[in-house]
Design goal:
This protein is mostly helical. It has nine helices and two strands, in the order H-H-H-H-H-H-E-E-H-H-H. This is Succinate dehydrogenase cytochrome b subunit.
Amino acid sequence: MSWFAKTFSSTIGRKIVMSITGLFLCSFLVIHLIGNFQLFKDDGGAAFNVYSHFMGHNPVIRVLEFVLLAGFVFHIWDAVALTRRNKAARSVGYAMNRPQDNSNWSSRNMGLLGTVILVFLIIHLYNFFLPTKTGGLDKVMVDGMMIDNLYIRVAESFKIWWYVALYVISMIALAYHLVHGFQSAFQTLGLNHKKYTPAIKTLGYVFSVLVCLGFASMPLYFFLFK
C-alpha cells in the first residue's frame, strides 16, 4: 500500500482527490437544491416536510450521508494541505509579484472563500441538520404520519436578518469558489483541450451562478414575502 499512500499524499495526488470530491459535492448541491425547491410550494410546508422525512429515514440516504461527510472531510483536508505546501514552497516572495496578471480573483482567494463556506456549513448543520437527529423539532401530521416539522424551523430562521445575510454572502462565496473549482477539477483530471475547455469554463460559470442563485433565493423569498 506504500505506493498508494505516496501517490495520494503527493501534490498531484491531493489535487486529484480534491477534484473528484469537488465534483461529487457539486452533484450533491444539485440534488439538495432540487429537494429544497419544495419550500416554494404553497402547501404549508407539507411537501418539504415529506421530502425531509424521506431524506432523513431512507436507509440508502443514511449511508450516503457518511459518503458525503467523507467527501467534505477529504476536500477540506487536501485544501489545507495543498495551501500549506504551496506556502512552504514559496517561503521567500518574488521580487515582482503581480498575481492579478495571470490569475483571477477567485483562484487567488480559494482559501478565504472556503473558510466562509465552512463557517456557514457549520452553522447551517447546527441549525437544521442536528435538530433532526436529536429530536429537537416539533411534529406535524402529514398523510396520517407524525413527522418532524422542519419547514417551521426553516421559515423562522429565514426571518432573522443576520442569518439571511450570512446565507446570501455564503452563496456568493460559494459561487466564486465553484467558478474556479469547476474548471480546475476537469483540468486536474486531464480533461483539458483547446476545443472543450472554453465549453467547460462556460458550463462552470452557468452552473455556479444558477445553483447559488437558487439557494440564495430561498432565504430572500421567506424574508421578503412570507
